[in-house]
Known about the structure:
Layout (H helix, E strand, L loop, with lengths): L2 H25 L5 H12 L1 H5 L7 E2 L7 E2 L7 H4 L3 H10 L3 H4 L2 H7 L15 H15 L7 H13 L1 H5 L23 H6 L3 H10 L3 H4 L2 H9 L13 H16 L3
Helix pairs in contact: 2-8, 5-8, 9-15
Amino acid sequence: MSRRLAFILIVLAALAVAAWLVLRRARTPAPSRVQRGYQVADAKGCFACHGPGGLRGMANPGYGLDEIPPFAGGLVTMYAKDEAELREWILDGAPKRIRDDPAQWKLRERAIIQMPAWRGLIEGEELEDLVAYVKAVSDLETPQEEQASAGRKTAERLGCFNCHGPQGRGSTPNPLSFKGVIPPWDGPEFAELARDEGEIREWILYGRPRRLLEQPAARFFLDRQPIKMPAYQGHVTEAELGELLAYIRWVRQHPY
């Protein structure tokens, strides 16, 4: 092989690798806000006290309310009335409402583990991401409409949040899939994979929509990705399907 030909082959290989990297970066979405919030919580050590993923909590001797609560299980709503108080917990260690209430403070003053105040240590996008994660995993905000509320419970029962993240807002990695992640329901990638509620129905019932099955490139990625969407045909009623669609619609109408 001549030096000239070897040089050309090396250049072509380098260009091919560069093109592959550009295409991969172009089609790989950034983590959702909720997914980034999980990463912030992990990096800041929140799970040391609130348990893995914020799902467990731990004992706290001397604490009048027995234990450090997990984010999940509806307990956060007992401590934070709204998103503003959630921010105060993170930034100041407790909301002003509690700090100014002697009876509330007395429950906490002898606890051997105190909530850290992160003001000055976490701000900007990190704070917004962390708030979004805690809101999602704690169900601080839930749909008020009856069908969408029932759909959230159906999604929880079927394990949808295990893959799609808290409230369906995560972006769990899925290597070899087209996007590289299981897309959040409130993100733009989901709209590309499910153009309308008819396609969302097909995803739920058959594990993939007809449109993508008919595209060889799309089918290639659907077949090779390790985490595949289950087909729930025969396992959900028509009423439950309608509830799931109503809940996904609510999530998309209230993005984090």
